[in-house]
Fold this protein.
Amino acid sequence: MPAGLIALALGGFGIGLTEFVIAGLLPEVAADFHVDEAAAGWLISGYALAVVVGALGLTAAATRIPRKAALIGLMVLFIAGNLLSAIAPDYGVMLGGRVLAALCHGAFFGIGSVVAASLVAPERQARAIAVMFTGLTAANVLGVPFGTLLGQAFGWRSTFWAITVIGVIALIGVAILVPSAAGERPTSSLRGELSAFRSGQVWLSLAATVLGFGGMFGAFTYIAYTLTGVSGFAAGAVPWLLILFGVGLFVGNWVGGRLADRSIDGTLLWLLAALAVVLAGFALVAGMPIGAVIALILMGAFGFATVPALQLRVLSYASHAPTLASGGNIAAFNLGNALGAWIGGVTIAAGLGYTSPLWVGAAMTLGALVVVAVASVSARRARSRTERAAAGSEKSALPV
């Protein structure tokens, strides 16, 4: 394994920890700054919106910068944002620190995916991307529980100090371990990067990301209510159940990377079909604790197994200008998160119960399955036309 992948994974770990750990510390933060739950919630939703802005804006701004230099700059931004959160004297500064750290999120994973894929042979690119995203899954499995315990024991600021230190270590790792020429192209410009969005396959890939990952995350957003209100678990059991969910994420990411290296579309088709079945099955067995635990793990596994393939599909159809398209797909992940969470919230507010987000997730995932199926058929037809045209050209070139 190239050492540069380890540095990228560590950066992903820090970024994932920044995104998710705040949920466990929100009551302490709200009490410290004397704000209500709605205002405190902006520390999460504001972060998500800033991820979308950064994924497109900062990635576009970095098109003329060497990719290693861009990653180093993004880690500096990440460190500054978390340091600002750690020392924030009031809520406004804390929110500013969250937004600052979030701006690097999408661009780091977008540019990092291109760099990770360039560090290995073509047949191992999905696995390389999966290694980088392993940091994100590890943040859920290990980082969030321990980060929450640290914040509860020594104050929430201690968690952000710890994340700042992780950022510094990741920065040093990227500077030392990532090759200077990793992921570079002979020419790179904003106009050239925007040309990737002329491809219908790129847009279909982005739509699949919004629907597929949004379906899983929308269901996950309200999972605590499902587990306590439907499955009958005590609130104190939820953090430990989420660790099991994180284990599912970790395993799914690892397996999904290996499967996607064999066939991107084939992998996505059966994974999305399986995820839709799991989400619908979860809704049906949510009232049975053992069934709910099994479904929770499978939801994490199949949901995150799609990530390497979704990211690599965009890269494969934007190979001539991958950076902005890759960042756009990270934005699509977060747009899907927001869409799934919003629709799930609407169904709960409509009185459809705490299993309704699972049904919404299943429907969105089926939509993603249809998109990938259409995209796959379209791609095969395009390849067939190209092959026939090439064969015709060769035939006409033969001497009579």
